[in-house]
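User: Hey, my collaborator sent me this sequence without any context and asked if I could get a structure. I don't really work with proteins. Can you help?
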Amino acid sequence: MEGSEAARLLGERGLGRLAQFKTYRRRWFLLAVVSLLNCSNAMLWLTFAPVADKAAAYFHISLEMVNWLSIVYLLISIPFGLVATWVLDSVGLRYTVILSAWLNMTGSVIRIFSVLKFLGLNSQSYWYLFTGQCLCALAQPLIIFSPTKLAALWFPDHQRATANMIASMSNPLGILIANVLSPALVPEGKHIPLMLGVYAIPAVTACAVATVGIHEKVPPTPPSASATNSSSQPFLMGLKMLLRNKPYIILAVCFGGGIGMFTCFSALLEQILCEKGYSNEFAGLNGALFTVCGLLGAFLLGLYVDRTRKFIESTKICFCLSALASIMFAVTSRFRHRAITLAITSSLFGFFGFAIYPIAMELAVECSYPVGEGTSTGLIFVASQIEGVILMILLQALTVRVSEDPSSTCALDQDGALDWTKPQDLLSTPHLHLHLSLDQVCHKDFMT
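Assistant: No problem. I've predicted the 3D structure and written it out in structure-token form, which is a compact way to encode the shape of the chain:
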């Protein structure tokens, strides 16, 4: 009888705990807002990458200056990424999202000033464009760090990976839209003002929706036990804990390097392919395939790990396959008239590469507990930006200017085209090394 009474009391306590958890429909609204912001910010980041040659001609600047419109995102995110982690863990999700929305919107509007002829900016127009990019860059870490916090606070355990996947993959969706939309909007340089106006619309919309629609930084009742116990360490203490966490450091270096490589691939794809005679539209198509297949891979893998919880195995396999795909692309892009093969390799690179993103972010949160979600994902992001800046600068330094080639489709060929063969070799080689580093220690460290 005593055993039966004890079992009954334990059952009542268990039901009491379950009654304390509740999910709210408005979590999907919050997810939609964060996803829209993430998508818009990625569009603003890569606005000019698919039409770099035409942008250089329109603003009377060099291709290197156009590339700096992308690189500035990486540079600003390195110091501000640490600030963003503190903001997210200390101030809360609501104010973080609203602040990022206003920075994103303000930057997109300032970019339009650079093409308003009545302002008479002339040589100063590029710096208005650059200033707008800087404000958008300030918003990026705030936006990118939010998905894991949103998933942890508002979604039950069985939906966390899926929610994280949806919000995180809205960033490559923005890259997809930029790759397709920019070449379509800018057949000639004179259409760049139209492109800037179109890209400002999602930013303004997201800002209005976030400001008016988000009222709470946490749900009134937590959705799960993990959300109940989500109180994190103070920022500096959490940072020290992460720097002493060997599995986390390995994941940060390996996955951060992967993000840096994807950043370089997205920003430089048009310049790599135009020298071999491929059009901007085809480069945009490759970027789109890269992203679409990545979204599909992330969606399928997110569903898989939600059911199986095989985070480590999935990360290792996808890292290996994405490394092989990057080598295939580096080899194929050396040759002309290989459109179908390039499209296939870009698709495979995206499918296996992007699929890692939400899973690795969730894995980072799991292996760094009790450090806050914003701090754990933020440090990975900062590592990726540092590695991305180094790669971008190094890749451009390794380019070789070759004599004018009539088959080249680059708009700026007066001084000859740029040969990207050596940079491509560099881009693919470390990807494989990073996989090997992760494979050597991941199983041993994460399972202990």
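In plain terms: Strands lie at 400-401, 418-419. You can pass these tokens on to your collaborator as they are.
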